[in-house]
């Protein structure tokens, strides 16, 4: 509908912009080519920090870890080629399945909850009018809290005996569980704690909600749509692209969750001695293998397995999203 | 594509070079030993938290000064990632202090240098240190670390809680498991659904080796090569210790209450009567003496089921990492830090500092036999506080009777295997037998892997 009405950009717009950039003095084809080359080099110059960063800090280490995953590298002694032994061990190690399952459960619990919570907060922000800026800042501030502090916060707030959460539940006559020690409640507790830093998603949703054309709501109202129908048939389709983006980003972040759980359960010798498998997330286990046990080769294989898991999940999400995500200008 | 003009090429090259150098110029963060010059001697894992530590470091500074070396103490507890990264990057500290249970693992992987030459050159007699502490810092008979501390474990009981419940410290013993369970049930206190007082805290998982030993089981063979985690006596010990936890509402409630203790404050669990009794490391006597010297403390030894005193000892050890820049100075440094003269001088300084603050000085046990004797008989004096004086005497006595988990090349992996097993039982995921069977497989696999090529 709208996509059909939206005029496509003229094919000449690119060259038109170039022509404007050239100005009247560079009207000849030779001068135009020279200016274009300058633009290209300037563009490379501007993106070079990212390219250097990507090659040095991402692509290089990824390639190195791929090579290391076929070795018994321990960072100190001599390194030997072990073929696919590390990958074979992934399927024999019960902790891999355990940590992967913990991580998937965490992601399944956290992603929809965080998205729904952020959307509710963003919609409330729309209603508060001129004070939206203040609340936007307030919601975003917790994102600035170091994850290590959030891990400690989890232990304090969710302590089954003296924690604030159970005190509040107590007011309603609910006896709160032992969030930090009962293996059943550890993951839900960490999921709830993670909502502390939902601010960035709120800001993204707020921007998306503000960009929904008002006339669509007016049209829906004229057609007799109530609040829920408007939300279901106008708001959600209009922000579906944003929802999809945050779904991908939150899923990846959840599958890579580390700091909060590590701080709360594995960070010190004391916490480590009490750490139950309930908080053993995949990246925590990877870190243990690499830096506690010095199995760098095996840890590299673990990293590549996680990469594949994330890749597969993202591809599935992208495929499924084609049925639900609406992009302006889309032909469907 | 045609090449850009020379001026643009120069600009572009300059730009690319600038950005390429940016990471190198800005550095990558973290604690680096590389910035220290050739005249700087670096340490890792050491904290100058009291006079006992700072006085010894002063002695080491004086010892290395004639060599033109300045000691840089990188404050903070030992961190395996930091240490490993430093060694792998060829940026190792000159001396490192770590939990002695880790020494075997790092030694097996070549991250630490044997002290054989050092001991010979500096004429250090390992017989001058507590045997178990030397064994813990050794692997296959080669010494890799000298003791920097010696921790014993004793039983600390709140006598007021016992009296209020119609019992006494004389009747309270860990040697009789049936009586201990009954006492645990009596001393615990609940309010609503919450546990408000732990009757007896068995301190598992961390003290599981002591419970196993109390029942006659070792977790690993004396040569450190064969795990014995699923020994029936170890399984029985774990079953019993978990029973004590379950008798008080289960792990969730007990741990939640334990986590809420103000352990280092004036309103600690003894003052607030949140705890009846527990086995604990000896350093906690010192903490209680400073924070709450007037508590009704009833210290005693932890006893095995045979009724005999049992002490699981542990502690830190000084080692020299592979690729240390000043290995000879490191040897001199370690000798100085662990020498009788240094320890006694430091203990006097600490005693003076403690007494000046108005707290009772409860002595120090160092792992150096001669130093411990002098500290016990000359530095420490009875304070008049009967409870803490008794605790101090127990600690001095226990230091001569400790057992240690034999050193092994799997290091932290072995420890993690049994700790996780206990946690799985506490959280109800597995039975003691299942958990220790799994731990046995994991630990033995780690030991076999670590022993590969070391036969």
Automatic annotation (TrEMBL), chain A:
The keyword Transcription regulation does not apply. Its main location: membrane. It is a multi-pass membrane protein. Residues 100-317 form the ABC transmembrane type-1 domain. It comes from the Bacteria. The keyword Transcription regulation does not apply. Keywords: Cell membrane, Membrane, Transmembrane, Transmembrane helix, Transport. Coiled coil: none annotated. InterPro entries: ABC_transporter_permease, MetI-like, MetI-like_sf. The chain crosses the membrane at residues 40-64, 104-126, 138-158, 189-208, 296-318. It is found in: Cell membrane. CDD domains: TM_PBP2. It holds the Pfam family BPD_transp_1. Residues 1-33 are annotated as: Disordered. Belongs to the binding-protein-dependent transport system permease family. This is Sugar ABC transporter permease. It comes from Streptomyces endophyticus.
Automatic annotation (TrEMBL), chain B:
Keywords: Signal. Residues 429-455 are annotated as: Disordered. PROSITE patterns: PROKAR_LIPOPROTEIN (PS51257). Residues 429-443 have a biased composition (Polar residues). Pfam families: SBP_bac_1. Residues 1-26 form the signal peptide. This is Extracellular solute-binding protein.
């Amino acid at each position: 509908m709208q996509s059909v009405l939206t005029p496509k950009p003229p094919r000449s717009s690119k060259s038109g912009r170039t022509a404007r950039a050239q100005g009247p003095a560079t009207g000849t084809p030779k001068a135009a080519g020279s200016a274009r080359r300058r633009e290209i080099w300037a563009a490379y110059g501007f993106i070079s920090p990212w390219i250097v960063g990507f090659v040095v800090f991402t692509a290089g280490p990824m390639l190195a870890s791929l090579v290391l995953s076929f070795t018994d590298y321990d960072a100190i002694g001599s390194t030997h080629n072990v073929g696919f032994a590390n990958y074979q061990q992934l399927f024999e190690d019960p902790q891999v399945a355990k940590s992967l399952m913990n991580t998937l459960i965490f992601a399944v619990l956290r992603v929809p909850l965080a998205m729904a919570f952020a959307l509710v907060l963003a919609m409330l922000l729309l209603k508060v009018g001129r004070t939206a800026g203040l609340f936007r800042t307030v919601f975003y501030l917790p994102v600035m809290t170091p994850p290590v502090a959030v891990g400690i916060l989890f232990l304090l707030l969710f302590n089954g005996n003296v924690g604030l959460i159970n005190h509040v539940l107590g007011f309603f006559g609910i006896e709160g569980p032992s969030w930090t020690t009962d293996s059943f409640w550890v993951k839900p507790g960490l999921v709830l704690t993670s909502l502390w830093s939902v601010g960035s998603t709120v800001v993204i949703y707020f921007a998306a909600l503000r960009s929904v054309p008002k006339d669509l709501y007016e049209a829906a109202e004229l057609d007799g749509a109530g609040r829920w129908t408007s939300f279901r048939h106008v708001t959600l389709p209009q922000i579906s692209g944003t929802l999809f983006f945050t779904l991908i980003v939150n899923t990846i972040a959840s599958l890579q969750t580390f700091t909060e759980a590590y701080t709360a359960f594995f960070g010190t010798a004391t916490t480590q001695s009490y750490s139950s498998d309930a908080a053993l997330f995949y990246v925590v286990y990877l870190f243990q293998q690499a830096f506690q046990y010095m199995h760098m080769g095996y840890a590299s294989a673990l990293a590549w397995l996680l990469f594949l898991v994330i890749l597969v999940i993202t591809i599935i999400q992208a495929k499924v999203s084609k049925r639900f995500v609406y992009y302006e200008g889309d032909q469907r | 594509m045609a090449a850009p003009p020379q001026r643009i090429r120069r600009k572009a090259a300059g730009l690319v070079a600038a950005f390429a150098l940016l990471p190198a110029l800005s550095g990558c963060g973290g604690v680096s030993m590389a910035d220290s010059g050739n005249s700087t001697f670096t340490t890792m894992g050491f904290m100058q938290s009291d006079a006992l530590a700072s006085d010894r470091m002063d002695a080491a500074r004086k010892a290395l000064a004639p060599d033109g070396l300045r000691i840089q103490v990188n404050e903070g507890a030992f961190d395996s990632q930091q240490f490993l990264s430093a060694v792998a990057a060829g940026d190792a500290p000159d001396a490192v202090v770590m939990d002695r249970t880790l020494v075997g693992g790092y030694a097996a992987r070549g991250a630490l240098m044997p002290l054989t030459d050092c001991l010979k050159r500096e004429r250090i007699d390992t017989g001058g240190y507590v045997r178990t502490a030397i064994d813990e810092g050794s692997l296959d008979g080669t010494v890799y670390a000298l003791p920097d501390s010696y921790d014993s474990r004793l039983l600390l009981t709140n006598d007021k809680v016992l009296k209020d419940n119609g019992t006494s410290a004389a009747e309270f013993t860990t040697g009789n498991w049936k009586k201990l369970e009954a006492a645990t049930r009596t001393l615990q206190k609940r309010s609503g659904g919450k546990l408000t007082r732990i009757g007896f805290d068995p301190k598992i998982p961390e003290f599981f080796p002591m419970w196993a030993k109390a029942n006659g089981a070792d977790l690993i063979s004396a040569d450190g090569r064969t795990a014995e985690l699923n020994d029936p006596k170890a399984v029985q010990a774990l079953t019993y210790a978990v029973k004590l936890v379950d008798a008080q509402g289960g792990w969730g409630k007990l741990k939640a209450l334990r986590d809420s203790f103000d352990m280092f404050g004036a309103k600690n669990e003894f003052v607030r009567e949140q705890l009846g009794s527990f086995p604990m490391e000896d350093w906690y006597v010192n903490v209680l003496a400073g924070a709450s010297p007037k508590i009704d403390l009833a210290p005693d030894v932890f006893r095995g089921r045979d009724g005999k005193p049992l002490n699981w000892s542990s502690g830190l050890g000084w080692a020299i990492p592979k690729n240390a820049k000043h290995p000879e100075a490191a040897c001199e440094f370690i000798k100085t830090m662990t020498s009788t003269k240094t320890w006694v001088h430091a203990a006097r300084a600490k005693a003076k500092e403690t007494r000046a603050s108005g707290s009772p000085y409860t002595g120090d046990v160092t792992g150096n036999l001669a130093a411990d004797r002098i500290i016990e008989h000359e530095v420490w004096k009875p304070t008049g506080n009967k409870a803490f004086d008794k605790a101090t005497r127990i600690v001095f006595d226990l230091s001569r009777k400790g057992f240690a988990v034999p050193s092994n090349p799997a290091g932290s992996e072995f420890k993690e295997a049994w700790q996780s097993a206990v946690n799985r039982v506490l959280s109800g995921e597995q039975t003691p037998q299942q958990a220790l069977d799994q731990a046995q497989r994991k630990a033995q696999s780690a030991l076999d892997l670590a022993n590969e090529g070391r036969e």
